[in-house]
Amino acid sequence: MQVLNDNNLILLVRATPGSAPAVDALNRASRMLRESSGELVVFFHGAGVEHACAPNAAEWSPLAARGARLEVCRAAWQRRHDDEPDSAFISSSLVSFWHRVASDHQLACCGQGQHASGELPGRGWVIEVTAPPSDPDSREILELVLAGASLELPLAVIFRDHGCSHLTGAEARGWRQLVDFELAELYHCCSEGGESDIAATPLSRDRAERLCETARGVIST
User: Fold this and answer.
1) How high is the mean pLDDT of the chain?
2) Between 221 and 204, where is the model more confident?
3) What architecture does CATH give domain 117-221?
């Protein structure tokens, strides 16, 4: 991702501390601070909220001292902890995250299945669901989409690889509301003839890639 000097930037971090994407996120945030004169917000979601507690917080707190705003998804944090995040971190919400993304912050993402986008103009955002259902991450991915939908943002969800498991059985119930209430466009790149309890449109992998390339931003989970 090319960083422009006057851009406000928001980096979504869903990666577990110690993983390769987490190391990349820290390095990328540091580089963003050096190269951009705009605001940098780092938003921690899902397993990424573990960066906001000891000993992981010590890696990020110097960035806050340099001017980065470190925000932690309140709901994801409270599912995992009974105390407060480290003092360098600020509790926030997914609605606040999407508000920044939709207004004036360029989006980048480091997480489970990292993907950075936002270079090309597009009319909406794509959320790729590639991980199998698990608790609490499945719920948190759905909450991420619902928060964007609550602001009436144009969203597309693509299920692929292990993420296709979300389309059947009990796992499908939460996602079905996106179709029933026309909150987001749902697609899948699952095997031909694969079962689905949701009216998700099948896509070839090439078409899915083109959809991502022309989106305003891509979040891969």
Assistant:
1) 88
2) 204
3) 3-Layer(aba) Sandwich (3.40)
